[in-house]
Design brief:
The complex is a heterodimer of chains A (166) and B (787). Chain A is an alpha+beta fold. Chain A contains 5 helices and 5 strands; from the N terminus they run ββαβββαααα. In chain A, helix 2 packs antiparallel against helix 5 and helix 3 crosses helix 5. The longest helix of chain A is centred in the last third of the chain and has 15 residues. With 787 residues, chain B is of the alpha+beta class. Chain B folds into 3 domains: 197 residues, Aldehyde oxidase/xanthine dehydrogenase, a/b hammerhead (Aldehyde Oxidoreductase, domain 3, Alpha-Beta Complex), CATH 3.90.1170.50; 324 residues, Aldehyde oxidase/xanthine dehydrogenase, molybdopterin binding domain (Aldehyde Oxidoreductase, domain 4), CATH 3.30.365.10; 147 residues, Aldehyde Oxidoreductase, domain 4. Classes of the chains: A alpha+beta (166), B alpha+beta (787). The complex binds FE2/S2 (inorganic) cluster (2 copies).
Chain lengths: 166, 787
Amino acid sequence: MAAVSMTVNGKAVTADVEPRTLLVQFIRENLKLTGTHVGCDTSQCGACVVHVDGKAMKSCTLLAVQCNGASIVTIEGLAGADGTLHPMQAAFREHHGLQCGFCTPGMIMSAVDIVNRKGSDLDEHTIREELEGNICRCTGYHNIVRAVETGAKAMAGSAPVRQAAE
Amino acid sequence: MSATGIGASVRRKEDHRFITGAGRYTDDINRPDQAHAYFLRSPHAHATINRIDATKAMAMPGVLAVLTGADLEADKIGGLICGWMIHSKDGSPMKAGPHPALAQGKVRYVGDHVAVIVADTYAQARDAAEAVVVDYTVLPAVVDTATATKSKTVIHDVAPDNTVYNWHLGNKDETEAAFKAAAHVVKLDLVNNRLAPNPMEPRAALGVYDKGEDHYTLYTTSQNPHVARLVLSAFIGIAPENKLRVIAPDVGGGFGSKIFIYAEETVCVWAAKKVGRPVKWNSDRTEAFLSDAHGRDHVTHAELALDANGKMLGLRAHTIANLGAYLSTFSSSVPTYLYAPLLSGQYNIPAIYAEVDAVYTTTAPVDAYRGAGRPEATFVVERLVEKAARQIGMDPARFRQINYITKFPHQTPVIMCYDAGNYNASMKKALEIADYKGFPKRRREAERRGKLRGIGFSSYIEACGIAPSAAVGSLGAGVGLWESAEVRVNPVGTVEILTGSHSHGQGHETTFAQLVSDRLGVPLEAVSIVHGDTDKVQMGMGTYGSRSGAVGMSAISKALDKVIAKGKKVAAYVLEASEKDIDFKDGKFSVKGTDKTLDFGSCALQAYIAHKFNGQDLEPGLKEGAFYDPTNFTFPAGVHIAEVEIDPDTGVTTVVNWTAVDDFGVIINPMIVEGQVHGGIAQGIGQALLEGVIYNKDGQLVTASYMDYTMPRADDLPSFKVGMTTTACPSNPLGIKGCGEAGAIAAPPALINAITDAVGHEDVAMPATPKVVWRAAQKAVSKMAAE
Ligand code: FES
Ligand code: FES
């Protein structure tokens, strides 16, 4: 067993894990944060994307012990403490950027990272290229692209995502 | 139209949990003390099992049990079933080989289930699997669809030539006569490539056994939990239905592959009792490639007969369909009744004859995948039609238009009676959106850049909401294809809708609530949709074949009618009027010609407190149920136009424009419908350009991960231009036709028609990878150079 400690969604966590425990297993099984998903075994689908020290990473491809001391944000930690959705979350909802929802946490975490890296003025081509590491089987990406465009603008504060009627 | 009613693009109610990570998929559910299952799978395509020795594995840490087919047999657990009986031309029933959940004596494909190891942790189970010794005698593999019946290797004793059935449909003599009279005959050989469905959530199961109650619960990734319970109870024999609860919670996509009742969930729920602990299994992606039922895999020769004016006279097709190593739950129906009845397309074709030979191979079972049979039919028809137009030198849009069916109802020569449609309207709109007129200019401009530009059409039709039950029963279906609904109005006027449909991405929590809100005049937030749990919803048939709108919502509509009728009775007492004078509109009961009203919530309360009427005259409460069995299939149809640009140096095809104009009948939520279209097109483009399951000659699956099987990614696809035309469906009360499969059906022929247009000949196979297209483009390049 190996001791790990890290900060996850602002909370300090420590645990003894088998050294072979993947970060995604640690998040899902030890911390019971099941919003992060596993869609493949070859680091291809991006369903497992979380932020490690502010960068999008595939949590199926990291060992928990590699993240000792790191600060992790998962999809559960993205919204405000009062429940206010992150602008990217709101944009996915507004633009119907999800259907079954399985790829969605990873998509949203990747999308936020794209904006962090590339800024908020993203054209369609850039968004599509940057989403290369996230597979969605449901949406055909059309609405995901719209969501990322809008979410990016909203993150810059220029155009808040309209709160839709429900 | 209200902001939340029928026709409004209401944002989805279910999204909040998905975007915040609060979705609850099967693998998110855990039971205290659960054990984990790992399936030991066959490494061989075909082998007899001489001996399984688990002694060493049993001694490994954490291992609770190693179970095999012999244990299933000892417990009298039956095999997996195929629920649709097909008869061959000679009247003999299809040859269904045994399909045990764990192999009994023989394995028949790589990934076939040999044994299950149950241990405290998944890692322990997986480690222990390596210590199970299996002595195999390897037999030859049978992989190729076209030649499976010629193989000397017998996969199932009941089918010595590997034939499941030789089936046919239509009128052979009339069709032959049509071809004799033809001025032109168009011929094509086509392969419909084998696909892996790949919902992003892998399959999973959690079996729980309660000893005190002698009761089982199965959490599973299913599109139809009630059908799963029926099969597990009545056929496989796990437990009687009243002792088995099946729950399909949030399900991360299905596309057909989660309709079927598989070995893994059967084994998990059975093993839970054997080991006395809950048993969990979660597929990894490679297991999904190996063992989820695949789709398509047809080899077809087809011909179209035309008269001198280009009018269609007849169509004939011979198809060999690969059903894999075992008959999966509905596999037999896919290349027969879901395929050949669609061979009339949108066209007036007086004579049609189709022959289908279904074969066994030593590959994973093949069953319904988005579209199921209809994409295969549409590929045949629309490739033939495009080639025909080229052969006789007519514009492909015009050629389609002169052959469209224009009068409804229209009885085709292959079972279907199309009830409504306006195919020309969709074509016209599509031509406009795609700027078809401007295409020659775009092509010339592309040529100047050294690119080959092509345009291709697909005028697809599909048959959705398969029904009525009596009709499908006469065609061999083992089940009825109705749907159930229950409307429970609570005393304060909030509403729960219990439905037998199952949402795994379709947004039922929103669209179904829109219908209810529209009809009862209650706010959307006051409506909850309950589905996916056999303890809550008594019975249902689930979601596939684009049936939930047309059939599932019609059942809700029927139950709502009953609620309103009962509400009128209650209102009549409360408002002291005659029942026949009570109107219901916008959430209010009123007495004709007066200003006396009772809102829906107050009516509900009155129904429950029952103070204003005598409980003997009128039953208290406000809760109604309905079963709805449609009168016909529905027939969504439309036109897709693909425009591509090919780089002849690399063979890379870029989809530069995509136009889809669909007629889905009445639409509840356009945003969700468009989303379904986008997703379907993406899967269709995937089939045409990128995806293909490949087994090598030894039956090893070469494409068993996302490193080898190309999934469409964001940068492979364009944005789509989507338009709608509407003819209401006369065969259900809501006028809905269904939209879930259209894109996947329409897209492959449109895209291949565009590529063949660009390269100037018909010889382009799916998937049209750069290698395929580069070869095909060389002819065009030499022609371009010569000019
Ligand atoms: S699960 Fe991490 S990339 Fe697929
Ligand atoms: S929404 Fe289902 S995989 Fe993306």
